[in-house]
Design a protein that fits this description.
The complex is a heterodimer of chains A (about 170) and B (about 130). Helices cover about 25% and strands about 45% of the residues of chain A. With about 170 residues, chain A is an alpha+beta fold. Chain A has a single domain, classed as CheA-289, Domain 4 (OB fold (Dihydrolipoamide Acetyltransferase, E2P)). A six-stranded mixed beta sheet of chain A has the order 8-1-2-11-10-9. Chain A has a five-stranded mixed beta barrel with strand order 3-4-5-7-6. In chain A, β1 and β2 form a beta hairpin. Chain A is elongated. Chain A starts with 8 loop residues before the first helix and ends with a helix. Chain B is built from four helices and nine strands; from the N terminus they run αββββαβββαββα. In chain B, β8 and β9 form a beta hairpin. The longest helix of chain B has 8 residues. The two termini of chain B are about 25 Å apart. With about 130 residues, chain B is an alpha+beta fold. Classes of the chains: A alpha+beta (about 170), B alpha+beta (about 130). The interface between A and B is medium-sized, with 23 and 26 residues.
């Protein structure tokens, strides 16, 4: 058996593994992942920053309040706390969400706190910041007004990242 | 709510519950002068609650109930509603404030709070505030 100074194959492999881990660490430092909640409304795909989502409530009863504007269909009861429900579908110029039970994202940013009615949650993902690019030039209407960017999801698919602060300003008017 | 309110005798708050268009409401009985299950009114032209609250469309209830209430300035006002439900005493801990997004719209309609009940949400209305607005 050779006992020279040549490293064993396992040491080569381990060295490669360590280099790989170090390079991954470098990438992680440069590209802090961002948590996003990706959801659908009709045919559209949208996202919120995960840091602004408190919880997701399925089958949540929205109690109608007749005198409110169309984007505010009513109230929800979250373990005894009463919160508003915002119909994002209506805000984006789509058909109003039908009354009854709904899937709701509880969003909070600064003084804004409200349930936001959505159709379905598609994913909760950690993505590198570089996957968020400026809003698509083809984006129009209210979606463009509310967009903080476009999320590249791979496979040519994108989601419009909704800025909760802009949404809060819009519904508070 | 604090002990001061209890000392002043506000609580337990007697509330008349009623419904209009599938939405539940409550009003302090202090504001209620009379209530009739089927809408006979002695006071001029009654107001349709549904119309005044902005439900949209015309009231569809064929035999409304009537509630005579104290409006702003102590004026007597008769309001037509779908149905009377019950009178119950409400403890301070049962009443929740409205969320800010809703409160600013609600105040214009005299709605100031909410009582969550199993499977329903009762909006508390102040008819003096409502008619003032």
């Amino acid at each position: 058996m050779e006992t020279g100074s040549e490293p064993l194959a396992s040491e080569d492999i381990l060295g490669e593994v360590k280099r790989s881990l170090r390079s991954r660490d470098v990438v992680n430092v440069e590209e802090e992942p961002v948590k996003l909640v990706i959801f659908t409304l009709g045919e559209g795909r949208y996202a919120f920053y995960g840091s602004e989502v408190r919880e997701i409530l399925s089958g949540c009863e929205v109690f109608p309040v007749p005198f409110l504007p169309g984007y505010l269909p009513g109230l929800i009861n979250i373990r005894g706390d009463i919160e508003s429900a915002v119909d994002l579908r209506h805000i984006l110029g789509k058909d109003k969400t039908p009354p009854g039970k709904a899937l709701i994202i509880m969003a909070e940013r600064g003084e804004f706190k409200s349930g936001i009615i959505i159709d379905a949650v598609e994913d909760v993902a950690d993505l590198p910041q570089s996957k968020i690019t400026p809003p698509l030039a083809t984006l129009t209407g209210t979606a463009r007004d509310l967009a903080a960017g476009t999320v590249e999801l791979g496979g040519g698919q994108t989601a419009t990242l909704i800025d909760i602060e802009k949404l809060a300003a819009m519904v508070a008017l | 709510m604090n002990g001061e309110a209890a000392k002043r005798g506000i609580f337990p708050l007697p509330v008349l519950f009623f419904s209009v268009g599938g939405v539940h409401y409550g009003v302090s009985t202090d504001q209620v002068l009379s209530a009739a299950a089927r809408g006979a009114s002695e006071d001029g032209e009654p107001l349709w609650f549904q119309r005044e609250m902005g439900y949209g469309g015309e009231p569809a209830c064929p035999r409304p109930a009537a509630v005579a209430v104290k409006a702003a300035g102590g004026k007597r006002l008769t309001v037509l509603i779908d149905s009377l439900e019950e009178i119950a005493e409400v403890a301070p801990g049962e009443i929740r404030p409205l969320p800010p997004l809703v409160a600013r719209h609600a105040r214009r309609k005299g709605v100031w709070g909410v009582i969550p009940r199993p499977g329903r949400m009762c909006l508390l209305i102040d008819f003096a505030l409502w008619t003032k607005s």
